[in-house]
Amino acid sequence: METGSPHDTGTADVPEAAAPDTAHPPAAPDAGAEAAAEPVWRALPPGLLTMRRLLLLVWLGLLTLATALVPGLLAGPGWSAFAVLPLAVLGWGWVMLERNWRSWRYAERADDLLISRGVLWQEETVVPYGRMQLVEVTSGPVERYFGLASVQLHTAAAATDATIPGLDPAEAERLRDRLTELGEARSAGL
User: Fold this and answer.
1) CA pair distance 130, 189, nearest whole angstrom
2) How high does pLDDT run on average in the chain?
3) pLDDT, tens digit, for every residue of 24-41?
4) What is the pTM of this model?
5) SS3 letters for the chain?
């Protein structure tokens, strides 16, 4: 009995009929089957980033103004230099908000909904359709002004409740209706 090296392909002693045909390579696997296995991820709309950045600008702008005026009037103009601290936080927050916004995404699969988020601590939540008890669409006054809505999913386990923030209202309603329909269909089989 002859043994070969692990690098040996084993085609040297194979008869002509069994040798692979290099002129006609084997057919590639069905690309549609592979695409169906991978979830289609959807990102959040840019309106959420705009809203969060504007809120950051308003709140830290007011804090910068207060930090410049109050110490400047009470202790002297040199103390107004502390206004640089909120400005530094504003610059850092501006970048971090975009990184956070880019990390949010969701995907609808055949049996569950995936929600992925996080930059340093990445978190992926899987919500099975059959476990959903309530799907809410909420929109506060600031969100409504920017044309945004959030979808909140409530499940049997409180720890797996999930939220998808900053969606277009039409997409939020479509997602709510679809998740409700799939949840009812999956829970009926239990």
Assistant:
1) 9
2) 80
3) 444 444 544 444 568 899
4) 0.70
5) CCCCCCCCCCCCCCCHHHCCCCCCCCCCCCHHHHHHHCCCEEECCHHHHHHHHHHHHHHHHHHHHHHHHHHHHHCCHHHHHHHHHHHHHHHHHHHHHHHHHHHCEEEECCCEEEEEECCCCCEEEEEEHHHEEEEEEECCHHHHHCCCEEEEEEECCHHHCEEEEEECHHHHHHHHHHHHHHHHHHHHCC
pLDDT bracket for residue 106 (50, 70, 90): very high
Give the type of residue at 78. Answer: G
Higher pLDDT, 189 or 63: 63
